[in-house]
Design goal:
- The protein is mostly helical and 86 residues long.
- The chain has one domain.
- Helix content is 34%, strand content 5%.
- A two-stranded antiparallel ribbon has the order 1-2.
- Bound molecules: iron/sulfur cluster.
- The site of iron/sulfur cluster has 12 residues, from helix 2.
């Protein structure tokens, strides 16, 4: 069964973007440990992105970043005003 089209999805939620999701995961894995967001905080950030109107096909419409990469970088912040995380 195919999932319905969802604008508010992360790359990892979209089977059609599996290759891109894998590339983003590889970039996250390459981040030095000291620059990586702790897992609990990373998941909290992504949950906020998932419920955000600016999320479009895994990308933040405000900054153009793939949110799975942005959320994984410790020093990054949500570009919304006010920011939703970071
Ligand atoms: S505005 Fe913030 S919460 Fe919304 S998608 Fe972009 S980074 Fe995520």
């Amino acid at each position: 069964m195919t999932r319905p089209f969802c604008r508010r999805c992360l790359l990892e939620d979209m089977p059609s973007q599996a290759e891109l999701a894998r590339s983003v995961r590889e970039l996250v894995d390459l981040l030095p440990e000291e620059n990586r967001t702790p897992e609990e905080e990373r998941l909290r950030r992504l949950a906020l992105c998932r419920s955000c109107d600016h999320l479009l096909d895994g990308m933040c419409a405000l900054c153009g970043c793939y949110v799975e990469l942005r959320a994984a970088k410790k020093r990054m912040a949500c570009p919304d005003v006010p920011g939703r995380w970071g």
